[in-house]
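F.,

This is the one I mentioned.
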């Protein structure tokens, strides 16, 4: 996982699903990362701002809404280049295809509902990476410790409680 710190993280929109990302917010970051600013890159970043933790297929669907002729390969190439440049973070969660997010400038973790798959960001308890110190490093200089909390979200818990009540 690439870890790059940039001076300015694009603002997280309170209602990201309804608000488009202004391309200018990403233009400087893309250039700072040594990449050319292209419509596919801006469209992928916009899609991930609107829908954090999206899979490549979900990103493709969102990008095709504004660029109908974009290919699957193009989206994968953009996701790879933006991840390698540190503008995206790839999440590799158990039983799930890779997911991507634009939140890369902090050390945070994820809570995953094992019933519905909902993913939420969780602030690091320690506040810096790595947040866990291994008992044995095997000679490695540890930079990151990924923490994934697994459980059942409140919506799924409520549904399970309703089902239990209905069975009585």
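My design for it:
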């Amino acid at each position: 996982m690439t870890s790059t710190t940039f001076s300015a993280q694009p603002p997280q929109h309170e209602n990201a699903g309804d608000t488009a990302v202004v391309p200018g917010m990403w233009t400087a970051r893309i250039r700072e990362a040594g990449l050319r600013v292209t419509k596919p890159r801006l469209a992928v970043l916009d899609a991930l701002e609107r829908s954090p933790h999206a899979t490549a297929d979900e990103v493709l669907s969102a990008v095709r809404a504004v660029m109908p002729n974009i290919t699957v390969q193009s989206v994968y190439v953009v996701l790879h280049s933006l991840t390698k440049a540190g503008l995206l973070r790839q999440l590799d969660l158990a039983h799930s295809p890779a997911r991507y997010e634009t939140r890369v400038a902090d050390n945070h973790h994820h809570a995953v509902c094992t019933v519905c798959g909902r993913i939420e960001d969780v602030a690091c308890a320690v506040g810096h990476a790595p947040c866990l110190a291994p008992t044995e490093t095997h000679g490695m200089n540890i930079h990151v410790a990924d923490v994934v909390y697994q459980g059942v979200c409140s919506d799924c818990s409520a549904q399970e409680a309703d089902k239990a009540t209905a069975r009585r």
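The chain has two domains: 16-91, 106-167.

Talk soon.
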